[in-house]
Amino acid sequence: MNTVVLLACTGLGLGALYFLVASGLSLIFGLMDVLNFAHGALLSVGAYAAWWAAGDGGMGFWLAVPFGTLVGTGAAVLLELVLIRPLYARPRDQILATVGVGLALPALLMGIWGADARPFPQPAALAGTVRLLGAVVPVNRFVLIGAALLVLLALRLFLARTRYGLIVRAGVEDRAMVTALGIDVRRAFTLVFAIGGAAAALGGALAGLYFGSVNPGQGTGLLIFAFVVVVMGGTGSVTGAAVASVAVGLVQQFANYYTAAGLGDLSVVVLLAVLLLVRPRGLTGRLA
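RE: above sequence
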């Protein structure tokens, strides 16, 4: 029983990390039809910004996390304005450009700080463990789960209660009609990119808690499973991404423990294939 509880909490924490990356990715693809392969690099930027701020920057963890999130948000806005916006009518060039950025940014981080993983400073309050149903669970798992729930709630409120949220929802359904009504969807595009970058950068900052370190390729590794989550949840669906993230995180942890190490990744691919056979549009296939 203790093992099951520990695996469940660890899987939920990993799923929360996947959701932070996949939620923005899902919105960006759902509204803008942009496959942003540089999304993982935004996570790495946020992770390294938080790591630097918590260490050499002298800010401490609690200020380093919002600092890393802010830096990642700025990087996402800059990416959309400078690189993505001129290529909206050229989807193939978009893919090539974002792939290039996704490779260049980790290489830049590697050139500045090296390829070795850097220990992530953790506050004493989050470095301990708690007992849950007899299992000893690291506190940082609950921090990740709490952060993901807050992001999910914030995104749902944004999409349902704000003007730009309604524009995003309408743009996912019929972008041509929104444009015909005289609404400047370019601002919505930039805003969605900023939201996606913020969520990814927050995930990068908190990934340091989960893994205990940061490295240049961290975002690239998480991006693969983020794409799996987006496809499983249904492109453009935040709720679907949340459900799929939980499923992927739990399947990975339990499969890795009860089978051979590494089979967790294969189990996720099998789960994706089965789901697409049953529901080709994913769990929801809509924005909600």
